[in-house]
Design goal:
Strands 1, 2, 3, 4, 5, 6 and 7 form a seven-stranded mixed β-sheet that branches. By secondary structure, this protein is of the alpha+beta class. It is built from eleven helices and seven strands. The chain is globular and about 75 Å long.
Length: 346
């Protein structure tokens, strides 16, 4: 069973930032392995009293490199799922992914094997970091048509990866390929519907937004630094107004994230759908405000002459499409109407 890491506070996040600074410029796959080797992946489990510290760590990685954040978030989410399922995380240095996208033309079948175990057949799409991880938690379907989760070691015969169709510019380095499984041994996690019915499903959904938030704060930091230098010589009220717009948007999202994290820690077994959807939609809106305001204030220079900023401008809109936009808004509205919740009450 996965051992529970200790709570991570400001010191741990500071240590993580130092590690990230030390590996600046390294490919995401290399950086992920270094973070795992350093034990930086042992984040507080969601709902165990330090959910905000977990999100701060994810935000720190998102501020550095969103492709790395995609791999790191998938790895740490897999560890949380394994913990909930009472399963082992594999050997030291195992790098995990969480692959649970379910396009109708790419579904995995989980079938009984003659030896009493289980095997996977089929194609899995949107497999981030496929060539840089050793294990994956995958969604799949049993013979009765019920949704399942399974843990699979990827260094087996019968696993084939292809980058056919991967033409991404934004999030290119996340290398989200297709993976084909043919008679590949796997271990079921929980029973049917375990993935979506477990308490941590919505905790993980909110955690993804922490990565988006981190990237948006990096854009805001860049704007603040640039305007501090420019304003000393020649204040520009329009650019300063942009910084104010960004500050208000991100502060609102940060406040909601703190509130949601505290709510999850107070009642970790409660359904956190409302809190998670609110966080995701709030962060997405704030990040879009930030992308627009920073782009207008700083012009095309950072997008064309600063590699890290150019990647952020390209990566963040793509990563945020993991949100379901109006579908998530509709789901949140339906939930509020059904439960008579009024989260806007002061």
């Amino acid at each position: 069973m996965l051992s529970q890491p200790s709570s991570s506070g400001a010191d741990e996040v500071g240590h993580l930032r130092a590690l990230l600074n030390d590996m600046a410029g390294q490919p995401p796959a290399t950086a992920l392995q270094r973070l795992i080797a350093a034990g930086a992946d042992r984040l507080p489990l969601p709902g165990h009293g330090a959910t905000l510290a977990r999100w701060r760590a994810l935000a720190a990685v998102g501020a550095r490199d969103l492709s790395l954040a995609k791999l790191f978030e998938g790895h740490t989410d897999a560890l949380a799922i394994l913990h909930e399922a009472g399963a082992d995380r594999g050997g030291d240095g195992a790098a995990w992914a969480t692959w649970c996208a379910e396009p109708p033309d790419a579904r995995l079948r989980l079938e009984p094997a003659p030896d009493g175990g289980f095997v996977l057949h089929g194609r899995k799409a949107w497999c981030s970091g496929a060539r840089s991880v050793s294990h994956a938690v995958v969604s799949c379907w049993n013979r009765d048509g019920e949704p399942m989760l399974a843990a699979v070691e990827l260094r087996q015969a019968g696993v084939r990866m292809t980058d056919d169709g991967w033409q991404a510019v934004g999030m290119r380095d996340s290398a989200s390929f297709d993976v084909h499984f043919e008679n590949v041994a796997a271990v079921p996690l929980g029973g049917p519907n375990f993935y979506v019915k477990r308490a941590g499903f919505w905790h993980g959904g909110a955690g993804v937004a922490a990565c988006w938030f981190g990237a948006a704060t990096a854009l805001a930091d860049a704007l603040s630094v640039a305007l501090r230098a420019r304003s000393a010589a020649q204040p520009d009220p329009h650019r300063l107004a942009g910084l104010g717009e960004v500050a208000v948007a991100l502060q609102g999202a940060a406040a909601l994230m703190r509130e949601a994290a505290a709510e999850i820690d107070r009642a970790p077994m409660d359904d956190a759908m409302t809190a998670a959807l609110s966080v995701r939609l709030s962060v997405e809106a704030a990040a879009n405000v930030t992308l627009g305001a920073v782009g207008r204030a700083l012009g095309p220079g950072p997008m064309c002459k600063d590699a890290a900023m150019a990647r952020r401008f390209a990566d963040l809109p793509v990563f945020m499409r993991q949100s379901h936009a109006e579908r998530d808004q509709e789901a949140l509205g339906r939930r509020l109407a059904e439960t008579m919740e009024q989260p806007w009450t002061l």
